[in-house]
Amino acid sequence: MITTETLMTFMTVSLLLGLTPGPDNIFVLAQSAIHGRQAGLLVVLGLCTGLIVHTVAVAFGIAMIFQTSALAFLVLKIAGALYLVYLAWRAFRTPASEVRNSSASVVNPIGLYRRGVIMNITNPKVSIFFLAFMPQFADPSRGSVTLQVLSFGGLFIFSTLFVFGAIAILAGTLGQRLKGSARAQRVLNRIAGTVFLGLAIKLATADR
Question: How many domains in the chain?
Fold first, then answer.
């Protein structure tokens, strides 16, 4: 049984981590500003699904592979970087009129959800972070460490939904107000493309 004090400490730290600028919340910000609140929330759901994968990987020791195998870490991070480059290319090429007049970004919820999943699970640093972060709060004297890690993962996902959801709504609202301006949309697209490229470079050059 996890103590109330430990739960409160973990939730506080998790919320602060969610607010700290990083690849995932910047990704949500960019997607929401371009495609709207609904798109941003779908991306958030995808990211949180990826967090489920990382939580299970840590709970059952799979994440150790990325910490001990340089090849596994390299393959996954390159895949993630290439996907971000693809998203940057899409952002740079999308005409402002297409974003303004089309609802394609909302019509294809599976695609937006999939973006979030791929963005999260192809970042091996998330698994390594979880591997270093969550066991610190687990206490073997209070029961199964695996179950405790799974519980902490669920709490982390809940805090991520809350923080990232707020970011998606705020950024989506701002983006919606700018949708009537083709110039503003071009600027948003270029900013998003630049952000995706920056995230790709950061991921591709990341060390374990």
Answer: 1
pLDDT tens digit sequence for 145-161 = 888 989 999 999 999 99
**30 burial via Cβ count (<10 Å: 0-12, 13-18, 19+):** buried
Question: Which tokens in the block code for residue 127?
Answer: 């698994």
CB 100 within 8 A of CB 179: yes
Residue 197's CB: how many other CB atoms inside 10 A?
Answer: 18
Instruction: Please state the three-class secondary structure of 136-159 as a single string.
Output: HHCCHHHCCHHHHHHHHHHHHHHH
Query: If you write DSSP's letter for every residue of 166-181 in order, what string do you get?
Result: HHHHHHHHHHHHHTT-
Asked whether residue 13 is domain-assigned, the answer is no
Alpha helices by DSSP H, the chain = 4-19, 23-35, 37-59, 64-68, 70-93, 96-101, 104-107, 109-121, 124-133, 145-178, 182-204
Q: What is the pLDDT of residues 102-137, one digit of tens each?
A: 444 444 888 899 999 998 998 887 888 888 788 778
For residue 197, what are the domain limits?
26-204
The DSSP code for 207 is -
**Distance in angstroms (rounded) separating the CA atoms of residues 171 and 34:** 9
Q: Measure the N-to-C terminal CA separation of the chain; round to a whole number of Å.
A: 32
pTM reported for the whole predicted model: 0.76
